[in-house]
UniProtKB/TrEMBL annotation:
<dbReference type="InterPro" id="IPR048661">
    <property type="entry name" value="CPL1-like"/>
</dbReference>
<dbReference type="Pfam" id="PF21671">
    <property type="entry name" value="CPL1-like"/>
</dbReference>
<keyword id="KW-0732">Signal</keyword>
<feature type="signal peptide">
    <location>
        <begin position="1"/>
        <end position="23"/>
    </location>
</feature>
<feature type="domain" description="Protein CPL1-like">
    <location>
        <begin position="156"/>
        <end position="223"/>
    </location>
</feature>
<dbReference type="InterPro" id="IPR038955">
    <property type="entry name" value="PriA/CPL1_fungi"/>
</dbReference>
<protein>
    <recommendedName>
        <fullName>Protein CPL1-like domain-containing protein</fullName>
    </recommendedName>
</protein>
Length: 227
């Protein structure tokens, strides 16, 4: 006997699965801030290392997406649901070996898992796939967006467009149900002049922190040819 899952039940299952994946995702170093520039509403917690700071922010402070670690401050670990001002980021302070900052404040971002969800056309409701497109924002838990997957119009993946390295600032294959790519969408791994594993996505914008030979890093975290 074959049971058909009602669309609202099927969507709820996707929400629960994505939420669990989101909660288990490890943080990554998003960059380095100038001293004393963490968001004013950040909450201090006790931690003895950058990694402990990040993981405890996620587990102890609901809604936290950013952890700020300042080894020279009395309140070394700060948790916040909000990012710092983009202009407060500094250049070339990342310590790659320890995944922290040589000086200033290390910013850790809670990056979501990006699971692929199979969505069958017969489960898309009376409006078909187009109806799913109109409800694309409700297919993934906040702050994720349902983005199309190249080569298969019946599959979407839940991405955080503020931090996703391969789909930064928008869905590179379009929002689920649409074939149009967002003008703001960028694959940070394909930027010219950027060294391997030397870019991140923050606030929906690619930020390079190291360039290949023949390129120089600008204040805007962009690699340009050294003329």
């Amino acid at each position: 006997m074959i049971f058909m899952i009602p669309i609202h039940t099927f969507t709820l299952i996707l929400h629960l699965f994505a939420s669990a994946a989101y909660a288990s995702r490890q943080p990554f170093l998003g960059g380095c801030l100038k001293s004393n520039s963490a968001p004013a509403n950040s909450l201090a917690i006790s931690a003895i290392s950058p990694s402990q700071c990040a993981t405890q922010c996620w587990s102890e402070r609901e809604g936290t997406r950013y952890a700020y670690w300042d080894s020279r401050s009395d309140d070394k670990c700060l948790c916040s649901p909000f990012p710092a001002n983009a202009e407060d980021f500094t250049l070339n302070n990342e310590d790659e070996a320890s995944k922290t900052c040589a000086e200033g404040i290390a910013v850790y971002v809670r990056a979501p898992e990006s699971p692929n969800f199979q969505v069958e056309r017969k489960r898309a409701g009376k409006g078909g796939l187009g109806d799913v497109s109109r409800r694309a924002e409700g297919l993934c838990p906040t702050p994720l967006t349902a983005c199309s997957v190249a080569g298969n119009s019946s599959i979407y993946e839940c991405l955080d467009l503020n931090v996703d390295l391969n789909s930064c600032g928008g869905c590179v294959n379009g929002v689920f149900g649409s074939t149009r790519r967002a003008h703001s969408a960028v694959d940070c791994t394909s930027l010219p002049g950027v060294a391997s594993n030397a870019a991140t996505c923050l606030y929906g914008q690619c930020r390079a922190f190291r360039c290949n030979n023949g390129y120089i890093l600008t204040k805007g975290h962009i690699c340009v040819a050294d003329s």
